[in-house]
């Protein structure tokens, strides 16, 4: 069975076309490395871009979406599996359970909340799965500066800070995550 990577990303495409390019490339690289995609189940935004790239390259895509979002017709219909759950809490818990590692692409507050939640669980040693940011075009630079400020101020220990994987190169990101063996 292939290992699975949960990717958190925007339900929008963003204004910079490079975001879409990286989402597409990450989808291709997941298939190339025999990694299955776990994601929020949407057909729109960067979520749709990465799912379509995996599907186009004959990879496996597992979506997890709430009934509310599926009823709004934003759910992707061409997935290997689609789990429909009632709440966002259930969605995130199932994605975390299904995944062997986590990657954040550019996105909004929901994307940030999702990756930070699994990163918090890593800090609490609820899991040992790698948590990573694919820092496309410096999108998260200011956030990383804030994490450094948290560390200096004594609110984030250096060990936990250093466990967060940050890369702008997809291949290097997957190598550092150690799940493409």
Q: Describe it for me?
A:
This protein is an alpha/beta fold and 181 residues long. The chain has one domain: Rossmann fold (3-Layer(aba) Sandwich), CATH 3.40.50.450. 47% of the residues lie in helices and 18% in strands. It has 8 helices and 7 strands; from the N terminus they run E-H-E-H-E-H-E-H-E-H-E-H-H-E-H. Strands 4-3-2-1-5-6-7 form a 7-stranded parallel beta sheet, with helices on both faces. Strand 2, helix 2 and strand 3 (61-66) form a beta-alpha-beta unit. Helix 1 (17-32) runs parallel beside helix 2. 38% of the residues are buried. The mean pLDDT is 96.
Quick overview:
The chain has helices at 17-32, 45-56, 67-71, 88-98, 109-123, 141-152, 158-163, 170-177, and strands at 3-8, 35-39, 61-66, 81-85, 101-104, 131-134, 165-167.
Topology, pairings included?
Elements: E1 3-8, H1 17-32, E2 35-39, H2 45-56, E3 61-66, H3 67-71, E4 81-85, H4 88-98, E5 101-104, H5 109-123, E6 131-134, H6 141-152, H7 158-163, E7 165-167, H8 170-177
Parallel strand pairs: 1-2, 1-5, 2-3, 3-4, 5-6, 6-7
- Summed over residues and divided by their number, the pLDDT gives a mean of 96
CATH architecture label: 3-Layer(aba) Sandwich
**Count of separate DSSP helical elements:** 8
State the helicity in percent bands: 40-55%
Percent of residues in beta strands? 15-25%
Query: What characterizes the major β-sheet?
Result: 7 strands, parallel
The value of Rg in angstroms is: 15 Å
Order of helices and strands: EHEHEHEHEHEHHEH
The level 1 CATH classification is Alpha Beta
CATH structural fold name: Rossmann fold
Global shape: globular
Structural class by helix and strand composition: alpha/beta
Instruction: Count the beta strands.
Output: 7
Strand order of the largest sheet: 4-3-2-1-5-6-7
Tally of separate domains: 1
Low-confidence stretches: none
Distance between the termini: 13 Å
């Amino acid at each position: 069975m292939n290992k699975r990577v949960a990717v958190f990303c925007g339900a929008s495409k963003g204004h910079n076309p490079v975001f879409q390019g990286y989402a597409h490339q990450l989808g291709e690289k997941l298939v190339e490395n025999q990694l299955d995609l776990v994601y929020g189940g949407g057909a729109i935004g960067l979520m749709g871009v990465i799912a379509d790239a995996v599907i186009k390259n004959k990879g496996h895509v597992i979506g997890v979406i709430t009934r509310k979002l599926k009823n709004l017709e934003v759910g992707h219909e061409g997935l290997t599996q689609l789990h429909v759950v009632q709440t966002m809490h259930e969605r995130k818990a199932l994605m975390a359970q299904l995944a062997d590692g986590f990657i954040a692409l550019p996105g909004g507050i929901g994307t940030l909340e999702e990756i930070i939640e699994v990163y918090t669980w890593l800090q609490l040693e609820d899991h040992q799965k790698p948590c990573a940011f694919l820092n496309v075009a410096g999108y998260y630079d200011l956030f990383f500066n804030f994490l450094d400020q948290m560390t200096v101020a004594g609110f984030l220990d250096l060990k936990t800070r250093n466990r967060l994987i940050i890369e702008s190169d997809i291949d290097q990101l997957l190598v550092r995550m150690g799940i493409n063996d």
